Amino acid sequence: MEKTPINHNRLQRKEGHDYASACIYLITVTTMERKRLLGTLVGGSPEEADIEPTPLGLYVAQAFRTMAAETTKKTGSRVQVLHYKIMPDHFHGMLYVRDPLPKGWSLGRLIATWKSDCTHAYWRENTEKDSLFSAGFNDKILFHKGQKEAWINYLDDNPRRLWLKVHYPDRLRKIYDFKAGKQGHPYTAVGNTFLVKYPERLQVRCHRNLTEEQIQAEVEMYLKEARRGAVLVSPFISPAEKAVYEAAYKERLRMIHIVNRGLDGKFIYPSGRDLTGCTEGFMLVLAPYADYSQETAAARITRSQCLDMNGYAADIASITLTEHATQRKTRK
Fold first, then answer.
1. Taking Cα atoms as reference points, which of 307, 271, 24 lies closest to residue 152?
2. Nearest to residue 82, comparing CAs of 93, 90, 71?
3. What is the signed CA dihedral for 220, 221, 223, 225, rounded to 10 degrees?
4. For the residues of 239-295, what is the DSSP string, one character each?
5. CA nearest 187: which of 245, 241, 235?
């Protein structure tokens, strides 16, 4: 009997990080049971897509700004709202803690106070005393140059993506001549094409000759970043890369799988778990080669193809493990 997939909640805090320190944080909270209490999707096309906030949604946004202002007033540490986005069942807020918070204060305290305020506002309009938001919150710490702008653009694009998901639910529609990466290479694409626009896309590349212990270390390293939200990009060829795929798939973590088979044939689609991953929305399959081409006709993948496909993955990726390792070392 197949085990139920792990649905990772992505609510862990960043290990070793001081949450009273000065940082830019991207906060995400979801409504209880993902009820659409904060807004309604409107617009007749993807370009016109927008979210019309409910009175409660407007209150949530105003309370977020008030929380920042009140924290500044009470602590003397400057806390600024850089951006926010109201969605029907969740809220994104970008918070800039410009000065270290005093003893007894932390990001968790700020968010807990804000969430409590919003829940009490929800209670004033409802007889049931359920919490407005699900437990906890997701935070992403923005370190890189340009990361803030990338995330603001991504958040502002949320209504368009939601519109497409609502109106075009079939995730198995093939897209021919789909351009992706810095070089704009054409692929045949099947699955969640939004993944190529996600701000953090991490190439998975592991040496072929690793011990089982080393492979497990690689798996844990990549899973850690994927659980934090990074999209894993790879042809997943080497034993270690395949192990990363297996582990990420079990947790339904987001992946872009570059395959060495053509998908442009009329009745050819991703096979096995790739197909399931596409239908469930956490995977994008990209085929850089045409069906019946020299590359796809080969009985076994060649070293040249391996290098070629890893090159495509590197072109699509936006971050590297080296950058993440540097961040972790800096924070220690």
1. 24
2. 93
3. 150
4. HHHHHHHHHHHHTT--EEEE-SS---STT----HHHHHHHHHTSEEEEE-S-TTSHH
5. 235
What is the number of H-type helices and E-type strands within the chain? 10, 12
In single-letter form, the type of residue at position 295 comes to: E
Using alpha carbons, list the distances in angstroms from residue 332 to 31, 113, 280, 307, 326: 34, 28, 37, 35, 10
Which domains does the chain show, CATH number per domain? 23-159 (3.30.70.1290), 171-331 (3.40.50.450)
- Using one digit for the tens of pLDDT, what is the confidence trace for 94-135? 999 999 999 999 999 999 999 999 999 999 988 888 999 999
Running DSSP on this structure, what letter comes out for residue 181? T
Closest by CA position to 114, among listed 81, 75, 68: 68
Q: Express each pLDDT in 243-285 by its tens digit.
A: 999 999 999 999 999 998 888 877 688 878 898 899 889 999 9
Q: What's the alpha-carbon Rg for the chain, to the nearest Å? A: 22
CA distance 240 to 306: 14
pLDDT digits (tens, 9 = 90+) for 138-194: 898 887 778 899 899 989 999 998 998 888 877 788 999 999 999 999 999 999 999
How far does the chain reach from its first CA to its final CA, in angstroms? 44
Contact by Cβ (8 Å): 174, 263: yes
CA-closest candidate to residue 320, choices 258, 193, 232, 198: 232
Antiparallel, parallel or unpaired: β 231-234 and 255-258: parallel
**What is the token pair recorded at 94?**
């970008």
Give the CA distances from residue 79 to residues 98, 152, 220, 225, 286, in Å, rounded to whole numbers and listed in that order.
Answer: 6, 18, 34, 27, 42
d(CA 318, CA 175) in angstroms, rounded, equals 22
